[in-house]
Amino acid sequence: MTRILLHLGFHKCATSSAQAFLHENRERIWPTCALALPYRLRPIANKVFWYRFERDEAALADLQASMRAFIRDLNLTPNRNLILSSENLLGQMPLGTLDEPYPIAVPVVRALTSAFEAIAWPCELTVYFSSRAHDDWVRSVWGHQARKRRNVRITDDLETFRARLSKVSLHDQLARIRAALPDLHIVSEDIDALAGAPFGVAQPFVDFLRLPPAKLAEFTPPPRANQGPGLALAEQLIELNRSDLDPDALHAAKDALVAAHFGSAQELDDDEEEQVSR
Questions:
Q1: What are the 10-residue block averages of pLDDT along the chain, 278 residues in total?
Q2: What integer pLDDT is reported at residue 277 of this predicted model?
Q3: How far apart are CA 16 and CA 222, in angstroms?
Q4: Measured in whole angstroms, how far is the alpha carbon of residue 76 from the centre of its chain?
Q5: How far apart are CA 174 and CA 34, in angstroms?
Q6: CA 195 to CA 94: how far, in whole Å?
């Protein structure tokens, strides 16, 4: 039987660190478990983005068909497991402009998970959501959106953004997904509660792998990836967003400010595809 772990986020809940851990240790993982990380899943995420804009059955059917084709092309065997991880499979990072953070989560998760029915042998599917305290999550999302160099130019201060993004908390969003999809095995871990685990935020993936201690001793621990700006830096980035700089000048000004803060240039993709597995 193939065991499958589908990690769908949430955004800014140590997803990049977990994905960097999986990528860094891929050669130790691959003999028993296939990996599909954000870069590889980008075409599926693009279908999710398209469905978010279209909200019609044709776009949803296209997403499901694309996921089925993706799974088919993995060339799985009954004795090999599978981990998939991409927060963008829930859609773009929330901006607080909608009634809930992930308004398309239920139909998207249903479409993605039903695609595994195409596997010709028994499978055990677990859907995993990494989560965190709502206020901490809002602050992290705000800082990330402030830092973006194109597409998004938010000008809200933190409290204004918090009010907009707190119509439905992250905890309530997860509860809505669970309630709508009772037949799915959905698990969640608070990333702060994982701080004391041997592999930190990567512990749920390590537990899923079920490797012997001698093999786990060879693993590289998870890095702190895609580090967000602190409050002071985020406020400076918001001030830049409020300026009349054109997009190119804003891009350069943000790069310079972030580089001065961190001591070096920091790579950041602006299209919701924070890839660590290029």
A1: 97 96 97 96 97 94 97 92 98 91 97 95 97 95 88 90 92 97 98 95 98 96 78 94 93 91 60 37
A2: 32
A3: 10
A4: 24
A5: 27
A6: 25
Residue 212: its pLDDT value, please?
A: 96
CB contact at 8 A, 7 and 15? yes
Residue 266's pLDDT is 57
| Beta strands 81-85 and 33-36, pairing class | parallel
Give the dihedral of Cα atoms 90, 94, 97, 102; nearest 10 deg.
Answer: 30
Task: Decide: helix, strand or coil at residue 208.
Answer: helix
Smallest CA-to-CA distance from 134 within 173, 86, 187 is with 173
With residues binned 3-state (H G I as helix, E B as strand, rest as coil), the percentages for the chain, rounded to 5, are: 50, 10, 40
* 3-class secondary-structure state, position 133: coil
CA distances from 135 to 105, 141, 230 (A): 21, 10, 14
Strand order in the sheet with 123-131: 33-36, 81-85, 2-7, 123-131, 186-190
Q: Could you tell me which residues are beta bridge partners of residue 7?
A: 85, 128
Q: Which of 177, 185, 128 is nearest to 14 (CA)?
A: 128
At 67 the pLDDT is 98
Q: How far apart are CA 141 and CA 26, in angstroms?
A: 28
- Pair of tokens at residue 22: 């999986």
Q: Residue 113 carries which side chain, given as an amino acid letter?
A: T
Comparing CA positions, the residue from 111, 151, 144, 121 lying closest to residue 14 is: 144
Predicted pLDDT at 273: 38
> Do residues 228 and 14 touch, judged by C-beta distance below 8 A?
no
